[in-house]
Write a structure and sequence with these properties.
Elements lengths: L2 H46 L1 H6 L2 H36 L1
Length: about 90
C-alpha cells in the first residue's frame, strides 16, 4: 500500500467519522424534542382521561415516551448521515 492510498483512506475515514458525529448530534437533538413532545401529552392524558388512568401504568407511559425518542433518534441520525455523505460525495467529484 502506497502512502498516497493510505492518505486517501485516512481522509475517507475522517469524513466518515465527521458524518457519523453530525448524525449523532442531530439524532440526540431530535430525541430530546421527541421526548418532551411525547411526554407532555402522555402525562396529561393519564391525569385527565379516566381510560388512560386505568390502562396506562408507568411502564406503558415510559414505553410510549422512549419509543418516540428512539424512533426520532434513528430516523434523524440516518437521514443526516446519508445527507452528509451525499454532500461529501458530490463535493469531491466536482
Amino acid at each position: 500500500m502506497t502512502s498516497v492510498s493510505r492518505s486517501a483512506m485516512d481522509q475517507q475515514m475522517a469524513l466518515a467519522k465527521r458524518c457519523s458525529h453530525e448524525g449523532i448530534k442531530a439524532g440526540v437533538k431530535a430525541a430530546v424534542v421527541a421526548t418532551v413532545a411525547s411526554a407532555i401529552p402522555t402525562l396529561a392524558s393519564v391525569r385527565m382521561l379516566p381510560w388512560a388512568r386505568t390502562n396506562l401504568n408507568p411502564t406503558a407511559q415510559a414505553l410510549i415516551v422512549s419509543t418516540a425518542a428512539g424512533m426520532a433518534y434513528f430516523i434523524v441520525a440516518d437521514k443526516t448521515i446519508l445527507a452528509t455523505a451525499r454532500k461529501n460525495s458530490f463535493g469531491r467529484s466536482v
